[in-house]
Amino acid sequence: MTDAQAAASALLAANRRRRLIRRWVAVGTLPLVLAALLFAGKLLSMYAFAHQAISSYVVDDYAGSEASARNQEFLNWFEPYKAPFNVGTALAGAEKLPEARAKLEESLALAHGLEVCTVRINLALVIERQGDAARESGDGAAAAEFYGEALTVTAETPAECDSEDAQKQSSDPDRDMKKTTDDLEDRLKQKQQEQQQEQQPKPEEQPQKPQPSEDKLDDLKEKLEQGTQERDQQQNGDEPGGSGTDRPW
Predict the structure, then answer these.
(1) CATH number at residue 34
(2) Which carries the bigger pLDDT value, residue 65 or residue 247?
């Protein structure tokens, strides 16, 4: 074999090795590429579903908002509290209060730091509406219990929720979180107190004694006057056969 043939053979072998290395590198990095694409797709879909859920909620399409929010629950890695939060908020708009409360409680368990602020407000509002519903149905005891639970959720809100950073993370930028929390707490205290007062037993009214009729009053007056006259006569000795001695009355 000439030197030229040997050089060509070595070049071909080197090219085969490079192609083989590139193939294995491609195979090895394929899972990472797929994971990156999946993450990017999931991130984009989360924003899309979240935007759709909010847009549907604004126009009172609570069923559409719930459906979009539930799509966020699949592979819910990024801000996991938001999917159940959006579902619970949509359910609350549709007046499905027990289901809304369950989802918001799930969201609260997944929230961290300032994320809990907006979740606690919505959860307390839902429980307050449960109390209002119980009161309207005539169940004052249940209403007072709901108001107490909502008051507990509100009272346990961290002090950091009054900060500007918390306001920036609010689900409703137009809502002043501190004012909303303060107003909610005052309203719940008043409602709870009203229900507790209504549950207290009322004092029993004393039965009124029957009043005598006018005829009976006249008869009684006549008898008293007659008795007085007879007594005066006996004391003055006017009675026939009397000795004029005072008699005990």
Answers:
(1) 1.25.40
(2) 65
